[in-house]
Amino acid sequence: MQHIPKSDTKEIEILMFDKALEKAFEPNEEYDINKWIFVPNFYSEYRYILGTKGNNPLICVGINPSTAKPDNLDPTLKSVERIAHNNGYDSFIMFNVYSQRATKPELMEKELNVKLHQQNMRAFEYILSLYKNNSPSIWAAWGNIIEKRNYLFDCVYDMIDLGKKYNARWFSAGRRSVKGHPHHPLYLKSETPLDDFDIKKYYERIVCK
To answer: Is the pTM of this model over 0.85?
Structure first.
């Protein structure tokens, strides 16, 4: 199954994160809301959050969501779940630099939808705030795909800023690229360890050179 965007997200109605979160707490016939957090709680052209609930989650940040949903994870999400558990986390939360769904990143919209990005950052801050007393763990996992759109680096900058606010600790997994991009989760072994990732230094080297 592939997801090809039907249009730019500026042409569709975007559900604000707070409203989408409210609905995600309502009983859903398609999945167990006590196990999953899925925002919005229906399949759409965008996704803010997908993950499992726990006290010590690994927050993984990819580039953009594809077809995954509760109880129907794609290969990337299955890898994320395995690596999270093998590194001692009791749950995982999949997040993305940009929330437009597209199986192929080159199909993402060419221009940033500011409204969609703002809501995505609202979602990111919400998740970080839940674990602010434990220095939330963020796994940078976007690979070279981040070079597909220039605006993605601006989105990462905002995530770095929010991470500072909540004293987040950043990690990468697997070998980084020649340019220093963190490895994508797909094809990593389940026992792959997490390595400390200096996100500030990475950003300065890639963007501010």
So the answer is: yes
